[in-house]
TrEMBL record, chain A:
Belongs to the acyl-CoA dehydrogenase family. This is Acyl-CoA dehydrogenase. It comes from the Bacteria. Residues 216-372 form the Acyl-CoA dehydrogenase/oxidase C-terminal domain. The keyword Nucleus does not apply. Keywords: FAD, Flavoprotein, Oxidoreductase. The lineage of its organism: Bacteria, Bacillati, Actinomycetota, Actinomycetes, Micrococcales. Residues 16-96 form the Acyl-CoA dehydrogenase/oxidase N-terminal domain. It comes from Brevibacterium daeguense. Pfam families: Acyl-CoA_dh_1, Acyl-CoA_dh_M, Acyl-CoA_dh_N. Residues 110-203 form the Acyl-CoA oxidase/dehydrogenase middle domain.
UniProtKB/TrEMBL annotation, chain B:
The lineage of its organism: Bacteria, Bacillati, Actinomycetota, Actinomycetes, Micrococcales. It comes from the Bacteria. Gene3D superfamilies: Acyl-CoA dehydrogenase/oxidase, N-terminal domain, Butyryl-CoA Dehydrogenase, subunit A, domain 3. Residues 227-366 form the Acyl-CoA dehydrogenase/oxidase C-terminal domain. Pfam families: Acyl-CoA_dh_1 (PF00441), Acyl-CoA_dh_N (PF02771). This is Acyl-CoA dehydrogenase family protein. It comes from Brevibacterium daeguense. Residues 10-95 form the Acyl-CoA dehydrogenase/oxidase N-terminal domain. Its cofactor is FAD. Belongs to the acyl-CoA dehydrogenase family.
Length: 391, 374
């Protein structure tokens, strides 16, 4: 056993000793955080032990074996997957205090990046953060924010200097979602429900202490977040994990679905998902101790395409049932799941898989430029001040 | 399903380097292209080089039978390099398919020549069949037998020293050996000349019975699994090489005042192809490591068969796609005899048919993953 594993074991033993039956969930998660077991690869004092990233799985096993309950990731997806890694990288000592509240689920995060005019071209955000005494005053419109209605804080990218080219004038903030001037409206999707929101920011006061990273460095900081997002979206599933399990399960359970003309397509997709899983497995072994790299983007590309094709096939193979929809009522689900509803919903929702977190077209740019070394796209806006760009 | 280690191992990379050196010296694109103009050209020097000098004929023979005791992992490395060079070698037919059959049947006298690389064997079955079955009659009388019939399109069917004939299935399976002097082999000009096919005729040919019954059926199954696995590695190696040549080409070729690799229409095609080729490579190594684990008794044969069909069905179409994209993205140059792309296209398209095309392989896979047809 390595010394790092020994440190994890010691921390688990200490956390188990410090946990009592009388504690509520927040207190229990706090004990894990205080013993460095929240994210073991984070530095000490930030919920970690400063050990290798490859030991995360080992630590999770030890914590589980000790019977210690951990917070469900899905309750604070943005907090765990995006805010925490960015704050631990760029945050001040004071800002890092919030890591504990993220882990204990006392502070739920959402993400305020995309705008109606800044989708794939994220650096084109127009939301302004104007100096105002000791802080900033933020005004603008954000879109595609999941969980905004339940969030306490947001990670925000806003423009602090429109007189320089677009990538240079951005800054990264932590924004209080309960502050005056924050208005959240559900954004209805093609499925009928509103899983996402539009967020309107009108003269929202943000203190100087909530600037994450340097002023004007927002693009660099945001890229840390986005790399983590892409890794969070693809890869790392067992055989028949995800949509293939749903569709193959339906085929097995319902002899009437077994149209011989669809059989080869189903097996072909089973193979597609399996080889994507094998590639993810190979990549994760290669990167066991490393940071997420651009190769990981490939997983998102195959995930999106396979989900498109699998949900389309499922609708087809279920015959008339495939044409029954459960409800188009405007609802606000707190967590989204592709499983548990009907094929029509899955088909419609899967269309988002090739758009959210970087469209498949942008992913192909990333692969061709950063993995294959092909030239970048021609950029007309690179050296022009943001305020002078045609809108 | 156990955890499979997918990282390259040092001795495998040494093996890869020595095989690559051999093919760079002895199996250049010009050499392979020459086989189309002179179909009777002698490739035996190249076969002796890998089989005897590099000792690769002994690769899959266990140490206790006088071999190198290596596994499907090492065979896959060799095969990737074969695909990369589209090398005209008897590795799949003799060192993998026939040798695996001989090892499992403990056919020691046959193995002695194969292991030394002094003799080569071929299994008489049509190259495109998904199952190893000669489809002809074997009349068994005691320990000897006679064989009669014709088998079209046998891989490396001309020039072998021994021919293995397989008939029947399950308890009725019979495997026999016929020496070359009793076989009439008619080679034909192949669509792909880098793997020579021949039509075989047997007329009351005397044969030695190597095995029968369920043991023989198990040996045939082992050869099928290993054959598909090693072929998938060849297809992955071919696909990677076709991709690499194309990536290099689009970075250098200029039209409209810019490299054609700067056009998004080209970039996106190559991004998709990179993913497909990378997935084929991952599936091939996964299948090879699983087959190795299965031969070592650490994994069930069913899992090795499943992985061989996943890798086989996927890599065969990926290799064809990579070769087709290579021809298209090389523009006019892709259609010339001078550029080597046609060698990859022909080998990939022929490989796609060998041991069953991808739909056939998926049909074989379906019961293993519990996706019944009806």
């Amino acid at each position: 056993m390595s010394t790092e594993q020994q440190r994890i074991d010691d921390a688990v033993a200490a956390a188990a000793a410090a946990t009592t039956d009388a504690m509520n969930d927040s207190e229990r998660y706090g004990v894990l955080y205080d013993h460095g077991l929240a994210w073991v690869n984070f530095p000490e004092g930030c919920g970690g032990l400063g050990v290798s990233t490859s030991l995360r799985e080992y630590a999770a096993q030890q914590v589980a074996e000790a019977g210690l309950r951990t917070p469900p990731r899905g309750s604070n997806t943005i907090g765990f997957g995006m805010a925490a890694p960015t704050i631990v990288t760029y945050g001040t000592a004071e800002q890092k205090l919030i890591l504990r509240d993220i882990y204990t689920l006392d502070t739920i995060f959402c993400q305020l990046f995309s705008e109606p005019g800044a989708g794939s071209d994220l650096a084109a955000v127009a939301t302004r953060a104007v100096r105002n005494g000791d802080g900033f005053r933020v005004t603008g419109q954000k879109v595609w924010t999941s969980g905004a209605q339940n969030a306490d804080m947001a990670i925000l990218v806003a423009r602090t200097d429109p007189s320089v080219p677009k990538h240079q004038g951005l800054s990264y903030f932590l924004l209080d979602m309960h502050a005056p001037g924050v208005e959240v409206r559900g954004l209805r999707q093609i499925t009928g429900e509103a899983e996402f929101n539009e967020v309107f920011l009108t003269d929202v006061e943000v203190p100087e202490a909530n600037l994450l990273g340097e002023l004007g460095q927002g693009w660099k900081v945001a890229n840390t977040t986005l790399n983590n997002e892409r890794v969070a979206i693809g890869g790392g599933t067992p055989r028949e994990g995800g949509m293939i399990g749903v569709v193959a399960g339906a085929w097995r359970a319902n002899p009437e679905y077994r149209d011989p003309l669809l059989h080869d397509e189903l097996v072909r997709l089973w193979v597609e998902v399996e080889v994507a899983r094998m590639m993810g497995e190979r990549l994760s072994q290669k990167l066991a101790a490393g940071q997420p790299g651009p190769e990981g983007s490939g997983a998102k590309l195959s995930f999106a395409r396979n989900n498109h094709e699998l949900t389309g096939l499922e609708l087809q193979m279920t015959g008339v049932d495939g044409l029954r929809y459960d409800t188009y009522a405007m609802r606000r689900p707190s967590e989204y799941s592709m499983i548990g509803r009907i094929p029509g919903y899955r088909y419609l929702r899967a269309k988002g898989n090739s758009i959210e977190g970087g469209t498949s077209e942008i992913i192909r740019n990333i692969i061709s430029e950063r993995v294959l070394g092909l030239p970048g796209e021609h950029r007309v806006d690179k050296d022009v001040a943001f305020k002078d760009l045609p809108k | 399903m156990t955890d499979i280690d997918l990282l390259p191992r040092e001795h495998e990379e040494d093996l890869r380097a020595s095989v690559r050196r051999l093919f760079e010296a002895e199996s250049s694109a010009e050499f392979v292209a020459g086989l189309y103009d002179d179909p009777t050209a002698d490739t035996s020097k190249l076969d002796r080089a890998w089989a005897q000098e590099l000792g690769l004929a002994a690769l899959l023979v266990p140490e206790e039978l006088g071999g190198a005791g290596a596994s499907a992992s090492e065979a896959a490395v060799v095969s990737e390099e074969i695909g990369r060079a589209v090398a005209p070698v008897r590795f799949l037919s003799s060192a993998v398919l026939a040798t695996t059959l001989a090892v499992h049947l403990k056919a020691q006298s046959l193995l002695a020549g194969l292991t030394a690389g002094e003799r080569f064997a071929a299994i008489a079955f049509p190259a495109t069949a998904a199952r190893i079955d000669s489809g002809i009659e074997i009349a068994v009388e005691g320990g000897s037998a006679t064989v009669s019939g014709t088998v079209p399109g046998v891989i490396d069917g001309v020039g072998a020293d021994d021919y293995l004939v397989v008939a029947g299935e399950g308890v009725d399976t019979v495997v026999v050996r016929v020496s070359a002097e009793h076989v009439q082999a008619e080679p034909f000009l192949g669509f792909d000349q880098s793997r020579q096919l021949a039509d075989l005729s047997f007329t009351h040919a005397p044969a030695e019975v190597l095995g029968h019954g369920l043991d023989a059926a198990a040996a045939v199954r082992a050869a099928e699994i290993l054959g598909r696995t090693v072929l998938a590695a060849e297809q992955a190696g071919l696909a990677q090489r076709a991709f690499d040549l194309t990536l290099e080409y689009v970075k250098g070729r200029r039209q409209f005042g810019r490299t054609i690799g700067s056009f998004q229409a080209v970039k996106h095609r190559l991004a998709d192809l990179w993913l497909e080729v990378s997935q084929a490579g991952a599936a091939a190594i996964f299948a090879a490591r699983t087959a190795a684990a299965s031969e070592a008794g650490e994994e069930l044969p069913d899992e090795a068969e499943l992985c061989s069909l996943v890798a086989g069905s996927y890599a065969s179409t990926a290799a064809v796609h990579a070769a087709e994209e290579a021809v298209q993205l090389h523009g006019g140059n892709g259609m010339t005899w001078e550029y080597p792309l046609h060698l990859y296209l022909k080998r990939a398209k022929a490989d796609e048919q060998i041991l069953g095309h991808s739909r056939r392989q998926r049909q074989q896979l379906a019961p293993l993953i519990d996706l019944p047809t009806a």
